[in-house]
Write a structure and sequence with these properties.
Length: 392
């Protein structure tokens, strides 16, 4: 992308609902994305490479564990600030937001919520700066939407456990220093543990050939009789609610992130519609283009309201998993629809890297699948309102 002229839409003056601190955080990350992400991201996406040099800056702007308390090296921000950071990062690229989501919600959160004091002190400060990077292993080749069926398992050997199995589709795995891994014990109970790069029998092959999230590194986690010290296990959390609690935090962040991608597509389409002349007038003057733009800003505004309210509920510890599912599902679908419409408005130019549209659109095809697919979130809402599970 040559120049980043992004101007954030705020149709309902939502800025007035934000605190000074939240606005400062948002503006800091917005400026960082303009300076550090926008100039390089298209090139990295085209080359299917994660821009590792951004890690330090992500740590500096507070994108790693935004709500982790300062005592453990985090910025100690509130949940709306966390959401705004994810929004701004995904405005740049979903892959950059993915890296921050995984580090924050899927690595730092479980260590903070379920870890021992020693684990927290050992890992969290370094994860907050990016000195250590982490990944999260839940999905397996044969168990995606249904993680309860996982086959990864470990056996108790006294002072350590022996871990076997494989995880697939793991963001950040090719370069992560540690992995938060979920596996079953000998009684079939799901437990979490921290596996470190360098442990014998642990490998992280990279997944190639993605048409989506090309600027994010994805890979496997393979465990072949890996000896994991007992002190690396989370002591108390048992069952699927462990990993699903982490997903609540990540899904919440994604519901904000998707707005960022949608805002970028809308902003680009709006500008293009005023500049591009056909039939002697700007294409933005045609009713069909205006319909597209009007629907885009309506949906973005609704999504902004939804997530802001969800953020307030989260700050008060009142947000339910089903409310988070609704926001993740609605906002990612909204963003994907807007990306497709924005692509139409850009005509042929919309398929090129001159504009961010196609990259956002392809990225969002992953975002609508990971952290629970579009249909799984619909079924979570269905369960919540009827009390009858479609999964049993
Ligand atoms: P179910 O019987 O409903 O529940 C089992 C236990 O878990 C509890 N629970 C939750 N706890 C916390 N948060 C939630 N959201 C929870 N949902 C359920 C539940 O209360 C129960 O607890 P207990 O104490 O009674 O045992 O479980 P189920 O097997 O029927 O499955 C439910 C289902 C399908 C909704 C769940 O499996 C699911 O969400 N599947 C989707 C899997 C998924 O989202 N995977 C994501 C992998 S990570 C990822 O994609 C990272 S991408 C990152 C990036 O790059 O940004
Ligand atoms: P499946 O579960 O096989 O689903 C296939 C289709 O069947 C979907 O449309 C689904 O909605 C539908 N389906 C399944 N069950 C039902 C049902 N009961 N009713 C109706 N329809 C149903 N995982 C991690 O653990 N860590 C990561 O860091 C991570 N990063 C990822 C990065 C990328 C780029 C991608 C693409 C995925 C990542 N994932 C990660 C995995 C992701 O969470 C899974 O892909 C997702 O949960 C879906 O699982 P699946 O791909 O096996 O699809």
């Amino acid at each position: 992308m040559a120049t980043d002229n992004f101007q954030a839409p705020d149709y309902y003056l939502l800025d007035e609902l934000l605190t000074d601190e939240q606005k400062l955080v948002r503006d800091t990350v917005r400026a960082w994305v303009k300076k550090e992400v926008s100039p390089i991201i298209e090139d990295y996406a085209q080359r299917a490479e994660f821009p590792k040099q951004l890690i330090k800056g992500l740590g500096e702007v507070g994108a790693f564990g935004p709500y982790i308390p300062q005592e453990y090296g985090g910025p100690g921000l509130d949940q709306v600030s966390y959401g705004l950071i994810m929004q701004e990062l995904e405005r740049g690229d979903s892959g950059i937001r993915s890296t921050a989501s995984v580090q924050s919600s899927l690595v730092m959160y479980p260590i903070y919520a379920f870890g021992t004091e020693e684990q927290k002190r050992k890992y969290l400060p370094k994860l907050a700066t990016g000195e250590l990077m982490g990944c999260f292993g839940l999905t397996e080749p044969d168990h995606g939407s249904n993680p309860n069926g996982m086959l990864s398992n470990f056996k108790d050997k006294g002072d350590h456990v022996v871990l076997n199995g494989a995880k697939m589709w793991i963001s950040n795995s090719p370069f992560a220093d540690i992995a938060v891994v979920w596996a079953k014990d000998e009684q079939g109970v799901i437990r979490g543990m921290i596996v470190e790069r360098g442990m014998a029998g642990f490998t992280t092959p990279e997944t190639h050939g993605k048409w989506s999230l090309r600027a994010s590194a994805t890979g496997e986690l393979v465990f072949d009789n890996v000896k994991v010290p007992k002190e690396n296990l989370f002591p108390d959390i048992k069952g699927l609610k462990g990993p699903l609690s982490c997903l609540n935090s990540a899904r919440y962040g994604i519901s904000w992130g998707a707005i960022g991608a949608a805002m970028d597509c809308y902003d680009s389409a709006l500008r293009y519609s005023k500049e591009r002349i056909q039939f002697g007038r700007p294409i933005g003057g045609f009713q069909l283009t205006q319909k597209k733009l009007a629907e885009m800003i309506t949906e973005i505004t609704k999504a902004q309201m939804l997530t802001w309210r969800l953020g307030i509920l989260k700050n008060e510890n009142r947000a339910t998993p089903a409310q988070i599912s609704m926001a993740k599902r609605n906002n990612v679908h909204m963003a994907l629809t807007i990306a497709r419409e924005a692509r139409q408005i850009h005509g042929g130019m919309g398929i090129t890297g001159e504009y961010p549209i196609m990259r956002h659109m392809m990225n969002l095809e992953s975002v609508i699948t990971y952290e629970g697919t579009h249909d799984i979130h619909l079924l979570i809402t269905g369960y919540d309102v009827t009390g009858i599970s479609a999964f049993e």
